[in-house]
Each structure stands twice: as C-alpha cells, then as structure tokens.
C-alpha cells in the first residue's frame, strides 16, 4: 500500500545557514522568516547540524557575567571580539529524514527525538527541503472519500480478496467504520491493522462478524489465503 512520502509535503525553499554564519544574522533569519530553527550546511549542501531559538537562548543563558570567557556550544573558548557562529551554536548531528521516507516514519522520528522540524535529504545526502509538524499533520486533512476508496480497493479487494459487497465501509472525520461479515475471525484484526496504516486514518471501528472461528487452528491446518495468511504468520 502506498503512503504519502515526505517529499510530497516538505517545503523546498529552505532557509539555511553555514558554519560561519554569525549569531546576529541567525537571529535575523529566524525572525524575518517566522521560524524557530534552521539547518546548517556545508558547501555541498550536506547538513552539519541544526541551530534553533533554543540554541541561541542557551548561549545567552550561559553568559554568567560580562567578563566571562566567550564560549560556543561546545564550551571551547573563542577569541574576544569574534562573533559566535552557527557552527559553534548548532546541535549536531542533525536528526534528518529522506524525501522518499513515508510521512508516518517522519512523524515517528519527530516524536522520538522531540523536534519540531526535520531537514530532508536526497539520495546523495544533500539538503532538498524541510518538513515540520504542521506539514505532517496536513496528511490528516485527506478527504474521507479518498480514504474510503483506498480501504475498499487496497485493503478489502487487493489484500484480503474480499468482495466489496461483503463489508460496508464508512469514513467520517478520518474514522473508518467496518460492518458486515467475513469468512474467518482472523481476517478482522488483519483488516483493522492494515487500515490503521493508511495515510489520514485517525481510528478504525470494527463491527465485523465472522462465519468461522479459526483462532484455535493448529499451525499445520489451513489458514488464511494471500496477504492475510502471511501477515498472521509473521506477527
């Protein structure tokens, strides 16, 4: 089943900095573009790190007194009078995703690392975009009619080999409701699991019944056919 990829929702026009970009210019870039962070890249557009408002504020907080030795994020001393740069302020290595990664994978990466944005890389590890939490949440604006069509075509017909007349599918605000009767009990959790993985699905409500309870079949006995059989054997 196809999932929307990061490249389809990312912002291509990326505001970025270089390791030598000074503190004040970074602050101006963040304020001018209304963003809270930006990637730091080298001359080949390879991402070296990310510098954010938090990094700038952390630097200010570390300045204990006016005569304190000037230091960057790493704690190294720098020459008096030389401005602090993006290379010294940034968080490195950066947490990134690739343009062909699924939106779901990008969302899991954001949550796991507690970040608001992710630099997006191409196959050569070069910066090609930026994706934010707002971009990913846009997937859930997918029309209910589109979700229903995908459930019927890709899950019921192609994956489970069910007739469209067997199961009734309704979708409201991203919540998919299934009613009807399937052949085997074990088809129900497979159907709901596959549907939950579709882009834009908020939840799945199953009101399905079954004709045969195959939950106690021994491994050597005939089980489900097709994808459902493989899915049950591997999970």
Structure description:
The chain is of the alpha/beta class and 235 residues long. Helices cover 32% and strands 21% of the residues. It has helices at residues 23-33, 53-62, 86-89, 103-113, 133-137, 144-159, 187-196, 226-234, and strands spanning 37-41, 47-52, 97-98, 117-121, 127-132, 167-172, 175-184, 203-212. The chain has a three-stranded mixed β-sheet. The protein has a three-stranded mixed β-sheet with strand order 6-7-8, covered by helices on one side. It has a two-stranded antiparallel sheet with strand order 1-2. The chain is elongated, with a radius of gyration of 25 Å. Residues 223-227 have low confidence and may be disordered.
In short:
It is built from eight helices and eight strands; from the N terminus they run H-E-E-H-H-E-H-E-E-H-H-E-E-H-E-H. With 235 residues, the protein is of the alpha/beta class.
Q: What structural class do you assign from the helix and strand content?
A: alpha/beta
**Helix tally?**
8
- Helix-strand sequence: HEEHHEHEEHHEEHEH
How big is the Rg?
25 Å
Largest sheet: 3 strands, mixed
User: What percent of residues are in strands?
Assistant: 15-25%
User: N-to-C terminal Cα separation, in Å?
Assistant: 18 Å
Average pLDDT taken over every residue: 86
| Mass-distribution shape | elongated
Number of strands: 8
The helix content is: 25-40%
Low-confidence segments, given as residue ranges, are: 223-227
Q: Largest sheet, order of strands side by side?
A: 3-4-5
